[in-house]
Amino acid sequence: MQQTARPQQNNSGNSQVQSIIITAITLFALSGAILGFAVGAFTHQHPSTNQTANNGKSPHSQPAVTTQKTATPSPTTTTTAVLTAELGCPAVDLATGLTPNTYSVRVTAKYKNKNDPNCNDINKEKTMTAAGNTCRIFLAKAKDNSPENIQADQTRFKDPTTFDQTFPTEISGLVIANNQSLTQPCTNGVATWDNLSLSPSLAKGHYYIVGVTANPAHYNFSWSGLLTN
């Protein structure tokens, strides 16, 4: 019996080819996965860091809307408007004598009268009511038909904040019940002093009671009838 010898098949070469193919497929799959992650990372939207830094809030927060309330204008009253008007001569009591009297001073608006540039006609001057009106009375010596050296006091008349101080020509000699102050606010246009009289110790002579009205913008003054002690 004849036997035929066959060459032995080389299986190691086929195994090497298969390993190369499997490795190539694995690398291809891995490269696809890596490419997919990379594309996803670039296309994913991130919050803007600039917005957070500028606003100090998260990117999704909405800025608060502030509603400003419109102020309602206050109506202009006569008391504030009249401060720009000139003051007329104060209407003062003209009673004379030493008997205790209620003495009043009325703040007036100046009445223009070309024939009387000084005190005009007090009866035609209207009462002026204003916040800031101040009334003051004081005793002064009489000289002729007016208080003596009244010009020396007028610088002080311009500043009602100094009315609590003694005027240069003021004479101490007025007596008022309940130690009432010679200076009074007269927002309503009138100041009143009750039971006003001359001091018994006042030197004999002739005097006037000077009435001054003033506000931060204007002042004026007049005086009583002649008082004889």
Written description of the protein model:
The chain is of the alpha+beta class and 229 residues long. The protein has a domain at 86-228: Immunoglobulin-like (Sandwich), CATH 2.60.40. 21% of the residues lie in helices and 22% in strands. The N and C termini lie far apart (184 Å). The relative contact order is 0.17.
Assign the structural class, choosing from mainly alpha, mainly beta, alpha/beta, alpha+beta, or little secondary structure.
alpha+beta
Oligomer: single chain
CATH architecture of the domain at 86-228: Sandwich
**Rg calc:** 51 Å
**Helix content estimate:** 10-25%
Which CATH C-level class of the domain at 86-228 is it?
Mainly Beta
Low-confidence stretches at least 5 residues in length (pLDDT < 50)? 1-12, 41-82
Q: Would you count the extended β strands for me?
A: 10
Mean pLDDT: 71
Shape: rod-shaped
Determine the N-to-C terminus distance. 184 Å
Order of helices and strands: HHHEEEEHEEEEEE
Summarize the structure.
By secondary structure, this protein is α+β, with helices and mostly antiparallel strands. The chain has helices at residues 11-43, 49-55, 78-81, 154-157; strands at 91-92, 101-106, 134-143, 146-147, 174-175, 183-185, 190-198, 206-214, 219-223, 227-228.
